[in-house]
């Protein structure tokens, strides 16, 4: 159906347009991008509708909200705004999107207030965007014991073997190890590595499952022998460990830190560009050990934080939903600084980030679907006054 919309109200009442703004439908995204190219004379109300959507939706940190949820949110803003108008104003029966636009004046971000007029003056920033980046996918590289590398992606299935007889089955975005060879054979090690813009899952020989986040690697044996089970992690991973009291599970990190597990699920973040190493326990029990001897035992929903370069473990209550959101297809931010947010986006979209001027000293909260394009993900920051451009896989952040 041809859309002959001329006002922001027309766009915001259309479910296809709302799905486009949310970034949840490739079909709707293609349609509206093509529509705008064919109707450049209607770009002003089109962009106005997007601004209203982004700011109202971004205020609630719900860029992944369903269409119905957004309509409820919008209605609440309209009701609250209309209720604050003088009687004469209410008698004029302003169109609902006018009331929504008035609500934009209430937009806040930690560190200051930003009036909607500033966004109207800066609309050219989004239009001037030269490039965009697609979200990451299931992809990785498996390095076998003899140095052979096997590219992996989310498509197709297959099966191959290591020299010790270990069978490796490839599914869609996952590997499953099954050792059936000689138990006395030399233990071989494999390494599964995800690039920036990739993630992958592996089931280890003991049945334990590991989800690797972007820009991470896991080194592990093709069979577990001896008194323990030890793997080596760089980056971030979520573990679901098969219990075995006689063979405890260890995760060894690059700085010498070790996590000892008896049977549990937990998340470890150990990126080189982060200042902290965090271990977050979801179920069971783990012990975090420093090379200097300090130890901490975590209970469910606790998090151990080690500042790199310091021989001290700090244990606190964890936000489990935020910590493991990456595994369930989301970015969750809760009072996070801009550099921390941009590091996550850079790893997932395989882009670089540079700052022009001082880094804005603001903090942000919200949720973004990992399947959104980079420009869609960045719009939540734009609603808080952050100026940016994307050129040749480089994001430039400009201070407000």
TrEMBL record:
Domain FecR protein residues, every copy: 191-286
Transmembrane domains' residue ranges: 96-116
Keyword Ligase found: no
InterPro entries hit by this protein: FecR, FecR_C, Ferrdict_sens_TM
Annotated ranges, domain Protein FecR C-terminal: 331-397
Keyword field: Membrane, Transmembrane, Transmembrane helix
UniProt-recorded name of the protein: FecR domain-containing protein
Provenance organism: Chitinophaga qingshengii
């Amino acid at each position: 159906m041809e859309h002959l919309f001329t006002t922001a109200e027309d766009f915001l009442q259309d479910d296809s347009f709302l799905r486009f703004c949310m970034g949840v439908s490739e079909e709707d995204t293609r349609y509206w991008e093509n529509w705008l190219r064919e109707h450049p004379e209607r770009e002003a109300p089109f962009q106005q509708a997007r601004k209203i959507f982004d700011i109202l939706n971004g205020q609630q940190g719900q860029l992944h909200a369903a269409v119905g949820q957004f309509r409820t949110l919008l209605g609440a803003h309209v009701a609250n705004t209309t209720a604050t108008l003088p009687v004469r104003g209410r008698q004029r029966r302003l169109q609902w999107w006018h009331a929504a636009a008035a609500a934009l004046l209430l937009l806040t971000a930690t560190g200051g207030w930003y009036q909607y007029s500033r966004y109207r003056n800066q609309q050219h920033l989004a239009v001037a965007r030269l490039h965009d980046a697609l979200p990451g996918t299931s992809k990785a590289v498996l390095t076998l014991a003899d140095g052979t590398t096997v590219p992996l992606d989310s498509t197709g299935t297959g099966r191959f073997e290591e020299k010790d007889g270990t069978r490796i089955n490839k599914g869609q975005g996952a590997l499953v190890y099954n050792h059936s060879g000689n138990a006395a054979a030399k233990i071989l090690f494999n390494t599964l590595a995800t690039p920036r813009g990739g993630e992958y899952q592996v089931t280890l020989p003991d049945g334990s499952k590991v989800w690797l986040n972007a820009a991470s690697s896991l080194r592990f044996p093709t069979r577990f022998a001896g008194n323990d089970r030890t793997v080596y992690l760089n980056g971030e991973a979520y573990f679901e460990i098969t219990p075995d009291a006689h063979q405890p599970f260890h995760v060894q990190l690059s700085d010498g830190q070790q996590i000892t597990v008896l049977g549990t699920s937990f998340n470890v973040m150990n990126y080189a560009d982060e200042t902290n190493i965090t271990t977050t326990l979801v179920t069971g029990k783990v012990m975090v050990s420093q090379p200097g001897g300090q130890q901490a035992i975590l209970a469910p929903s606790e998090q151990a934080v080690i500042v790199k370069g310091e021989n001290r473990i700090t244990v606190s209550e964890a936000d489990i939903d935020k910590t493991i959101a990456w595994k369930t297809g989301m970015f969750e931010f809760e009072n996070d600084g801009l550099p921390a947010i941009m590091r996550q986006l850079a790893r997932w979209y395989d882009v670089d980030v540079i700052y022009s001027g001082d880094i804005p000293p603001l903090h942000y909260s919200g949720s973004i679907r990992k399947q959104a394009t980079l420009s869609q993900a960045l719009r939540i920051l734009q609603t808080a006054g952050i100026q940016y451009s994307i050129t040749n896989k480089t994001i430039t952040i400009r201070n407000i």
